[in-house]
Amino acid sequence: MTSSLTLTDMKLKRIYIQNQLPAVLSPLQRLSHNIWWSWNFAAQDLFHQIDPERFRELNYNPVALLETLDPARINELAADTAFIERLQAVEKAFDAYLAVPKKAGPKLAYFSMEYGLHISLKLYSGGLGVLAGDYLKEASDSNVDLFAVGLLYRYGYFNQGLSMNGDQIHLYPAQKFTQLPVEPVRKADGNWLKVSVPIQGRIVQAKIWKLPIGRINLYLLDTDHEDNSQDDRALTHMLYGGDNEHRLKQEILLGIGGVRAIEAMGLAPEVYHLNEGHAGFLSIERLKNFVAGGLRFPEAVEAVRASSLYTTHTPVPAGHDHFSEHLLRNYLYNYAQELGITWEEFVALGRKDPHNPGEDFNMSNLSIALSQRVNGVSKLHGEVSQEMFTPLYPGYTPNEVHIGYVTNSVHYPTWIAHELHELYSTVFGKDWLADQSNKDIWRNIHKIDDKVLFEARHRLKVRLLDYVREKLKADMQRRGESPRMTYDILSKINNNALVLGFARRFATYKRATLLFQNEERLKALVNRADQPVIFLFAGKAHPADQGGQDLIRRILHVSKKPEFAGKIIFLEDYNMEMAKLLTQGVDIWLNTPTRPLEASGTSGMKAALNGSVNFSVLDGWWAEGYRPDAGWALPLERTYQEQHLQNELDAELIYHTMEEEIIPTYFQRDATGISSKWMHYVKQIIAEVAPTFTMKRMMDDYYERFYFPLAKSQQATSKSNYAKAKAYAAWKEDLRTKWSGIEVLDNNTFDTVNYALPVGETFNAEITIDTNGIDASSLLLEVCFYQRLTEEKIELRRVEAFELKKATGNKATFALALDPRLAGVYEYGFRLRPQHELMPHAQDLNLVFWV
Ligand SMILES: *Cc1c(COP(=O)(O)O)cnc(C)c1O
Questions:
Q1: Distance of alpha carbon 280 from its chain centroid, rounded?
Q2: Mutation test of ligand 1: which of 115, 130, 575 has the most ligand atoms closer than 8 Å to its C-beta?
Q3: Distances from the Cα of 177 to the Cαs of 63, 155, 316, 557, in angstroms?
Q4: What spacing in Å lies between the alpha carbon of 575 and ligand 1's midpoint?
Q5: What does the pLDDT look like over 692-737, one tens digit per residue?
Q6: Using one digit for the tens of pLDDT, what is the confidence trace for 524-550?
Q7: Which residue from 12, 258, 406, 560 could staple onto 701, CB 3.0 to 4.6 Å apart?
Q8: Which of 808, 797, 811 is nearest to 767 (CA)?
Q9: Ligand 1 atom nearest to CA at 601
């Protein structure tokens, strides 16, 4: 019965009654409040032992498990000396882990909209979040000086259900914060630390929570409490929910609120890492602080740029948030004034063309404008990003654009199957995890007997298929599918099948239904006598993505046809736990993105660690990871411009590769009953591919390529009250005002119009320029040789700098004597650009003058 009294009338107050564990068990409480347990095998086993069934029901949430543990079980455990001994050992390991002092190095702040740490923390939607979560775990393992900032969502991303028709149902169960491993960050007086963030003239209060990840902390902002209006409380309800305006508000909270939280906690990071453009507003808040501290706007820009890295994660345009000028004005208009600039100048920070009043404010452009360094997430994606952002840098060809890359990777302890880790450890040597990206260690996999490895992997497959049966049964019963069909499907799932997995976000570019181009062919392929094949699918489509949801409907529909019963299976509600089971248990991990839209992809790496062979388009990470003896590939090059023809071709290639290579290789049995040819693929993907895609390699790359250089430039610019930032800003302003007055006075170049240049002769040029008052030492003159690829496309083949021969007053003479070396037809030009000792790359001051 519901009461007619409202809660206020009833004067109800909340009380949190915490389960009291006896002293011997109290370490469990501690362990449950640091997510470290989730990647420590012994700690995981402890929580499993308490109550395996219940633990699973609770999404492996140890805080919830302990909170609801019944007294009889508590007493039993307290009296179980073997359990207590194990508990003490784990606690000792935990303390030893925590006791190691941090490595010296720059202090880093990492910002992300989502974090995939564990299934019980609904802070993630997909790959971006899982990457960030894996990265933080590695930051802890590598013991670096890093903390992270994000939002604590009440509902997070949706849980997926399906209707009988395959319509996606969006479920949003609330998280109970008392059952999460988070704790309030408190002020010295014991009160909860809050920061205020201005949103449309209102002050929104955000509470700060701390989520310990091993040795490091993730700080999370939460607006869902009584201080705020209903609307503002909803700011931290859903991840990627709501409209564009809602997203804008969330990004203001993350960026601006995040920087305020850092300040309030007295943390003083040297380098800021923006994981995706969602966090772009953090740089605006930092600008404001620098301006308030006495720097002029252009100086503040230098201070912020010198300490910021922006990582872009997708070449899909829809993946880059943008807001109309009108919308932005409603929220951030006052910032322009606080920064000492006009509103037009403010909006220009997020535009490709600052003078185009119709152009939206784009978070990627903003992030690029205020970050000295930018990177993509695989080698290929780095190149695609250079291409994508070339319009920001007129005068440069894509391969000159300063955007670099660090290829994504995965956190080994999170994604490896325990059994395999134990098996690897028998031959990989002692403490090998500290050197986990070293291939020489992994090559010892060849010391393991084929049959032993095959059987270990087979057990993982059986575990996966057991899970599939159980899950499918529950899903189908809930959907109301007929019992006959349900049992028909369940009975046809064969443990000896070759199992392929395809699971990821259902964005249309990932082409989940490519396999169904030709159902007849697919039918023959999965129904060969004695060579059963199973395809497992899973994944969520964004609630607003009808195209993605259509793909799910199609797969569910196919999976119910009698000829595909137990062969094509869709599992509802993809999440990190399912991802583990799948990537550990399948034989082949399949990925079929439209080139070149898969920035990296990481689930294939999880598979690789576990010896699941990949079969994928040579896009993203697989373009780097693929080797012919360690998996299969669909070619990178596009054959057809028209996508439907390309899909048809790719589907043909998939069927062909399956029929002619993968299936025969897998089922070719030797005297030992297994396929040694298959096991060679398995061992090669473990030995030659997996180590490169472990998180340690990625973290090392970030330090080497970005964090260390940024820490250096941050230190250089900030010294003596930002003296260098000021000088550098003044230099830039000076060049900007004078640049358009540069003129050519004399050009004495070999006459390439009338004569060919024989190889062996020297190409001479001498050019005199009126510098319009710019110091000649600030100018670099280059000759650029291009080769024309198409009407619109040229490729840079060679750049050589001139020497400054003479400089008097406004006159500067540059000379060049060049050995042309490469024969052929080129187009060339003389490019004058700025140079300065603080310039990290040519485009840091984006001025080009063509002679
Ligand atoms: C690893 C993972 C992803 C990322 O998959 P991609 O291969 O990058 O598409 C997405 N969702 C979950 C739950 C994951 O564990």
A1: 15
A2: 130
A3: 10, 11, 34, 38
A4: 8
A5: 999 999 999 999 999 999 999 999 999 999 999 999 999 999 999 9
A6: 999 998 999 999 999 999 999 999 999
A7: 406
A8: 811
A9: 8
